[in-house]
Write a structure and sequence with these properties.
Helices cover 58% and strands 13% of the residues. The chain has helices spanning 24-35, 39-61, 63-74, 83-131, 134-139, 142-184, 186-233, 235-240, 244-296, 302-343, 436-443, 466-471, 487-492, 500-509, 513-517, 536-550, 566-580, 615-621, 624-629; strands at residues 355-361, 367-370, 377-382, 388-392, 397-404, 413-420, 425-430, 451-456, 459-460, 473-476, 485-486, 526-527, 554-558, 584-588, 600-605, 608-613.
C-alpha cells in the first residue's frame, strides 16, 4: 500500500531548532482569552485578592504604633494600662482574619474558573482534532497528540489553578508594600530598590536558561509517550523478531533525552529559590544595619524600623515566589503553545455544495426531494443561476488523468484513468506500494488531487460535500478498529439510527450472527481494548457487518478478508455477494481468488494501470496478471 511517510518525532535532528516558545506573549494572551468567559468572577477574585493582600500589608503596619505607642512607653512601668494595647491586638487579629477569609474565597473561585477554562480548552482541542484531515494523523504520532491532552493541559491547569492567583497576589503585594515602604523611609527604600535590581537580573538570567529546557522537556514527553504507545501496539511484532533489546535501547535514548531536558529545567528552577532566599537575607541584614544607623542618628524610631524590616521580608518573599512562578509559567506556556499549535492546524477544507438527500421518483422520471427516508438517494445540485437539479445516486465513478502524491515532489499515481459503472465490482491488484489503497483514499477525499478529475455520477467530487460524499460510501479496512461498547453498538456505528433488527440483519449478511450469538452476552457483549476478546477474523466480520448496516451504494473493501481464514472466507462469500449486489464495489486484494468474479480487474504498477479486463481476458493476455495468478511473480 502506498501511503504518506510518518513524520513521527522519534530521533528528529531538527528538534533542537524548535525548543524555544515562538510567541510567548501571544500564547499568554490566548490563554487569557479563554478566561474571558469568567469576567465577572475574575473581578470578584481580584477584589478578594486585593482585600487579602491589603489585610496583610495593613496588619504589618500595626507594628509601628504597637511598638512606639505601647511597648516602648511600657518599658519600666510596673502596672501599665493594657486595654488600648489589647484593643489594637484584637483589631490587628481581625484584619488578618479578614485576609484569611478573603484568601479562601478567591482560591475557591479560582478553582472553579480554572476547571471551567480547562474544560473549554479540552473540548475545543478534541473538536478541532476531529476536524483535521487524515494527513495530520499520518504525519504526527498518536502519542504526541495524546500528550497535548495530558501533560500539556496539566501544565496549563497548574498555571491557572495555582500560579495565576499567586502571581496576581504577589504583584499586588509588591506594589502595596513598596508604597508603604516609601512612606516609612525613602532612604531605606532606595537600598531595597538596589537589591531588587540584583534579584531581577538573577531571575532573568536563570529564567532564560530554564526556558529552552522546559520546552524541550514538553516535547520529549510527547516523544516518549508516542514511542511507548507505538511499541505497546506492536508488541507482537517486536517479540516475533526478537527486537526487545533494540526497543529497550531506543527507549533508553529517548528517556535519556527527557532526563537531560528535565534535569536542565529543574536544575535552574531549583537554583532560583535558594539564591533568591539568600539575597533576601542579605537585603534584610543590610536594611537592619542601615536602619540601626538611622535610629542612632535620630532619623528613625524603633517602631518604623520594625515595620520596615517586616515589609522587607514581605517584599522579598513575593519576588522569590515570582521567580518560582516564572518557571511554572514557562512550563505552562510550553504546553499551551503546543496546544495552540494543534488548534491552529488548518481543518479539513470542505467547499462542496452538492448534498445527498432522500428522493422520490415520479412516473415520468422526475426526481424530487423527500423529507422522509425513501430508500432512494439523490445528489442535490444548486447552480449559479439558482436552479436546482437532482441526480439519482447510482455509484458511477470515473477517474480522468488523475495525478497524486503524498509528497508534492513524488507522484504515487500517474495519469490514472478508470471507470466503474453502477453495480460493477472493480478489483485492484499489484505489488505493494503500487497505489491501490491510494486510489480508494481519493474516492472519499481523504486527500485532494492536484491534477485530473474524479467524477461521481457525473459530478466532480470536489463539488460534493465531504460529509455527504462519505455518507454514500462504506469502507472495510485491512486494519479493523472496534470501539469500547457492545457488539450491537459497534455494528450500529455504520448507521447510528439503525434498529436492532437492521443490525442483526447486517450481521447475518456478513455471517457474523452465528459467532456473535455464542458470545457470553450475545449482541450485548462488551468489547474493550479494540475487541481484544475476539479473534482477528471475528473483528473483521464485525467490520464487514458495520459496512453492511450502512447500506451504501458504493463499497470499498481494502483487504477486507485478509484476516479471515479460507474456511471463514468461504462462509461469508455468499453474504459478501449479497452485500455487493447492486452496488459499485472497489476491492483491493492480495488473495487473487477473491477477485476472479470481478467485472474488471485493474493491475497497477508504480502508480500506473498497466492492464484492465476480467479474469479470463487478463489470463489470455499472459501479462503481469497471468504472472501473478500463476505464481510466476510475487505480489510483494
Amino acid at each position: 500500500m502506498a501511503g504518506p511517510k510518518n513524520m513521527g518525532m522519534y530521533g528528529r535532528k531538527d528538534m533542537k531548532e524548535k525548543l524555544k516558545p515562538k510567541k510567548p506573549l501571544q500564547t499568554f494572551k490566548r490563554v487569557f482569552e479563554y478566561l474571558g468567559r469568567y469576567k465577572l468572577q475574575l473581578v470578584v477574585v481580584l477584589f478578594f485578592v486585593v482585600v487579602s493582600t491589603g489585610a496583610n500589608i495593613a496588619g504589618t503596619y500595626f507594628l509601628k504604633p504597637l511598638i512606639n505607642n505601647h511597648i516602648v512607653p511600657f518599658i519600666g512601668h510596673k502596672d501599665p494600662d493594657l486595654s488600648k494595647f489589647i484593643s489594637m491586638l484584637v483589631l490587628m487579629a481581625s484584619i488578618y482574619l479578614l485576609g484569611v477569609v478573603s484568601t479562601y474565597i478567591f482560591h475557591r473561585m479560582m478553582l472553579k474558573i480554572s476547571t471551567g477554562t480547562l474544560l473549554k480548552i479540552r473540548t475545543d482541542l478534541f473538536k478541532h482534532i476531529q476536524s483535521l484531515p487524515i494527513k495530520y494523523f499520518d504525519t504526527n504520532s498518536h502519542g504526541d497528540i495524546m500528550s497535548r491532552f495530558t501533560n500539556d493541559i496539566d501544565a496549563v491547569r497548574e498555571m491557572l489553578g495555582e500560579v495565576l492567583v499567586q502571581l496576581l497576589s504577589s504583584l499586588i503585594n509588591i506594589v502595596g508594600v513598596f508604597t508603604v515602604m516609601i512612606i516609612l523611609s525613602p532612604v531605606l527604600t532606595l537600598l531595597v530598590v538596589g537589591m531588587l535590581a540584583v534579584m531581577i537580573f538573577t531571575v532573568k538570567k536563570l529564567g532564560a536558561k530554564s526556558s529552552s529546557y522546559f520546552m524541550k522537556q514538553q516535547r520529549s514527553i510527547g516523544i516518549v509517550n508516542g514511542y511507548i504507545e507505538e511499541m505497546t501496539e506492536g508488541q507482537k511484532v517486536v517479540k516475533v523478531f526478537n527486537h526487545e533489546n533494540k526497543v529497550k535501547g531506543k527507549f533508553n535514548e529517548l528517556v535519556e533525552d527527557l532526563y537531560k531536558a528535565a534535569k536542565g529545567a529543574n536544575t535552574f528552577a531549583s537554583m532560583l529559590r535558594p539564591i533568591m532566599f539568600n539575597l533576601s537575607y542579605v537585603l534584610y541584614s543590610l536594611t537592619a544595619m542601615a536602619g540601626a544607623t538611622l535610629i542612632v542618628s535620630g532619623g528613625m524610631d524603633i517602631g518604623t524600623l520594625a515595620s520596615f524590616l517586616q515589609y522587607t521580608r514581605n517584599f522579598s518573599n513575593p519576588i522569590t515566589a515570582l521567580s518560582q512562578m516564572f518557571n511554572a509559567v514557562l512550563y505552562a506556556l510550553a504546553g499551551a503553545e503546543r496546544i495552540f499549535d494543534a488548534l491552529d492546524e488548518k481543518p479539513e477544507v470542505d467547499d462542496g455544495y452538492v448534498t445527498l438527500v432522500h428522493a422520490l421518483v415520479d412516473k415520468d422520471g422526475t426526481v424530487t426531494e423527500s423529507a422522509e427516508r425513501t430508500g432512494i438517494w439523490a445528489w442535490k445540485h444548486p447552480h449559479k443561476d439558482g436552479k436546482l437539479t437532482y441526480t439519482i445516486l447510482k455509484g458511477d465513478i470515473t477517474f480522468s488523468n488523475v495525478v497524486f502524491g503524498y509528497d508534492e515532489n513524488v507522484s504515487v499515481l500517474k495519469s490514472i484513468n478508470l471507470y466503474a459503472k453502477p453495480g460493477q465490482k472493480i478489483a485492484f491488484v499489484g505489488s505493494t506500494g503500487a497505489g491501490k489503497t491510494t486510489v480508494t483514499n481519493l474516492i472519499n477525499r481523504f486527500y485532494d488531487i492536484p491534477d485530473g478529475k474524479i467524477r461521481y455520477d457525473g459530478i466532480n467530487i470536489n463539488k460534493i460535500s465531504k460529509k455527504d460524499l462519505r455518507r454514500s460510501l462504506a469502507m472495510v479496512l485491512q486494519d479493523t478498529h472496534l470501539f469500547s461498547g457492545t457488539v450491537m453498538e459497534n455494528i450500529r456505528y455504520g448507521k447510528l439510527d439503525a434498529t436492532d433488527e437492521e443490525v442483526i440483519s447486517a450481521a447475518k449478511l456478513a455471517n457474523a450472527d452465528s459467532f456473535i450469538r455464542h458470545l457470553p452476552q450475545g449482541y450485548d457483549t462488551e468489547l474493550t481494548a479494540d475487541g481484544a476478546n475476539l479473534s482477528q477474523g471475528q473483528r473483521q466480520l464485525l467490520s464487514i457487518a458495520r459496512a453492511a448496516v450502512a447500506d451504501p451504494p458504493v463499497l470499498i473493501l481494502d483487504e477486507a478478508t485478509s484476516s479471515i481464514d479460507t474456511r471463514t472466507e468461504s462462509l461469508i462469500e455468499k453474504g459478501m455477494d449479497r452485500l455487493m449486489e447492486g452496488r459499485t464495489v472497489f476491492v483491493i486484494a492480495h488473495r487473487l481468488s477473491t477477485v476472479r468474479n470481478s467485472d474488471a480487474i485493474l493491475v497497477l504498477e508504480q502508480g500506473e494501470i498497466i492492464e484492465r479486463g476480467d479474469h479470463d481476458e487478463l489470463l489470455a493476455l499472459r501479462g503481469r496478471y497471468f504472472q501473478l495468478y500463476t505464481g510466476m511473480f510475487e505480489l510483494a
